[in-house]
From TrEMBL:
Domain Prepilin peptidase A24 N-terminal, residue spans: 18-96
Organism superkingdom: Bacteria
One GO CC annotation: plasma membrane
PANTHER family xrefs: PREPILIN LEADER PEPTIDASE_N-METHYLTRANSFERASE-RELATED, TYPE 4 PREPILIN-LIKE PROTEINS LEADER PEPTIDE-PROCESSING ENZYME
Job description of the protein: Plays an essential role in type IV pili and type II pseudopili formation by proteolytically removing the leader sequence from substrate proteins and subsequently monomethylating the alpha-amino group of the newly exposed N-terminal phenylalanine.
The enzyme's E.C. designation: 2.1.1.-, 3.4.23.43
Subcellular location: Cell inner membrane; Cell membrane
Species of origin: Sphingopyxis italica
Listed name of the protein: Prepilin leader peptidase/N-methyltransferase
Spans through the membrane: 6-32, 90-111, 131-149, 156-173, 201-221, 233-253
Length: 255
């Protein structure tokens, strides 16, 4: 980690952006292929004509710009989702290293990169894969201590308390309303996030996620949707966004 701390400020941001672009390319492929049952590790190819893509076709952002957003063989438009995810992943790295240079910033960036596919899969498919939540949890228990200054025991307590709290809320809602009010992946996601934040930051996380969910609900209502109570809410989206945003807010509140 001393190498990361020794990087000049601008170089750290640039390196984090580059790493984010590369990871974003993989994350976009994972989000597009996994729900469709396709291999995530297979060779990339054009979705329209099936032409295998070469190295020059796989440079994040630049390849799509050079090809003007179309396949060089068949001319079919390239899904802009790839560029969106690559740019978002690069932005995660840049924000993290700009606001928290050094080891803590890289840990925050890693946190964001692990949250990003979960956020996207829940937004697109209402799906929070257990394997991704488990990866997030393991990484948190192994590396996340300096990010929230939380001891390993605090992070274990955060995992158990966070997961149990949301599981209880889901059970209580089902018991009183006779229907599911929360997906089964949400408590597991909160448990995994607790492995990063520790129990101390969980109230802040849940507050931010709730504010995001309420804001989304009000936005939908403003658009004239009268069936809001019947709409599925991708709460994992708000949990992931809140978890990433909680890092700088926590350090502002408790420097």
């Amino acid at each position: 980690m001393s190498f990361l701390d020794a990087l000049p400020f601008g170089m750290g941001i640039a390196l984090a952006a580059l790493v984010g672009l590369i990871l974003g390319s993989f994350i976009a492929t994972l989000v597009l292929r996994w729900p469709a049952g396709r291999s995530v590790l297979g060779r990339s190819q054009c979705d329209a004509c099936g032409r295998p893509l070469g190295v020059l076709d796989l440079i994040p952002l630049l390849s799509a710009l050079a090809a003007r957003g179309r396949c060089r063989t068949c001319g079919a438009p390239i899904d802009r989702f790839h560029s969106f995810v690559e740019a978002s992943s690069a932005l995660i790295g840049m924000i993290a290293l700009a606001l928290m240079p050094g080891t803590a910033g890289w840990l925050w960036a890693l946190f964001g990169w692990l949250l990003l596919p979960l956020l996207l899969l829940d937004a697109r498919h209402f799906w929070l894969p257990d394997r991704l939540s488990a990866l997030l949890a393991v990484a948190g228990l192994l590396f996340a201590g300096p990010l929230f200054d939380a001891a390993l025991l605090d992070r274990w307590i955060g995992a158990i308390a966070g997961g149990a709290a949301l599981a209880f809320l889901a059970w209580a809602y089902r018991r009183t309303r006779g229907a599911d009010g929360m997906g089964g992946g949400d408590p597991k996601l909160v448990a995994a996030i607790g492995c990063w934040t520790g129990w101390q930051a969980l109230p802040l996380l849940l507050l931010l996620a709730s504010i995001g969910g309420i804001g989304w609900a009000l936005s939908v209502q403003r658009k004239g949707d009268r069936s809001l109570a019947e709409r599925r809410v991708p709460f994992g989206v708000f949990l992931c966004a809140a978890a990433f945003a909680a890092v700088p807010i926590w350090w502002v509140l408790f420097p």
